[in-house]
Amino acid sequence: MDLAERVSTLRRVNALSARQLAALVDVAPTTVTRIEGGQVSPSFDLAQEILAVLGEPIGFTGAADVSAIAAARLAVHPALDIAMTPGAEVWQQRWARIGLIDARSQVVAGKDADLLFRAGRVARLTRRPGAVEFKAGPTAYDVADALSKASIDYAVTGDTGVNLYRSSAGEAWPVLYVEDAERAAQVAGLIRKEPGSFGMRVTLIPFDGVSEVGRTSIKGVAVAARDQVVIDAYGGIDRMAEQADILVGRRVT
Question: Could you tell me which of 92, 122, 117 has the C-alpha nearest to residue 231?
């Protein structure tokens, strides 16, 4: 897929108009349409910027930008104990250009779901810094129980997190934030997946100072904050996005 087709496809997948994408990267709408039409080749920096806001960095090797998560969560809940970094400020400025964040750096009324969706798209679960994948088998509840017994801090997220907040569908991909991924894996008896292998998995993501903030307990299970669970479900695979829609009221069960 060449750059023109890639940009066009990703823009549509992200439910953005050419005008909205142009606003996100601060260029004229005609620039985006000309890039998608193959009439102009953007500079490397602009191409990188466009693909970053669409959640597909050049080469598909870049890690998810946790500052986008921080920006979204602070816009929804400004009092959270999360640092407003320069990177988070950049994301808030981008989202302000398309009407998701107001002059007070807070989410525009009624735009919470749209904002969390954008954050999820640019911070995919599979690309989180330090994330480790293990062979499928144990459920998120199995892992959580083992970690709890070993006094290891954790927070369930993804589709299991959605179901803890509101029953919607089966849990297919156990994803947990943990304070120590290596120790957590040993305690839970997880076996690493072979590099490049596909299929179901269990994923452990190290605490990053953002995603684990605001944890709560539901039915005796430590779960990430509701907004974080929504972001992660939007950044997941299979039916996770549908489950996020259910949790934020976009979809009726």
Answer: 117
| Per-residue confidence in pLDDT tens, the chain, 253 aa | 688 999 999 999 888 999 999 999 999 999 999 999 999 999 998 998 999 899 887 665 567 889 999 999 999 999 999 999 999 999 999 999 999 999 999 999 999 999 999 999 999 988 899 999 999 999 999 999 999 999 999 999 999 999 999 886 677 899 999 999 999 999 999 999 877 666 688 999 999 999 999 999 999 999 999 999 999 999 998 788 899 998 998 765 5
CATH no., domain 126-248: 3.30.460
Give the pTM.
0.90
Three-state DSSP state, 216 = strand
Listed residue (101, 132, 131) closest to 118, CA to CA: 101
Alpha helices by DSSP H, the chain: 3-13, 18-25, 29-36, 44-53, 66-76, 86-97, 112-122, 140-149, 158-165, 181-188, 226-234, 240-248
Across the beta sheet with 221-223, what order do the strands follow? 132-135, 201-206, 175-178, 154-157, 221-223, 216-218
The CATH number for 3-60, chosen from 1.10.10.400, 3.40.50.150, 3.50.90.10, 1.10.260.40, is 1.10.260.40
CA distance 235 to 126: 8
| CB neighbour class for 233 (10 Å; exposed up to 12, middle 13-18, buried from 19) | buried
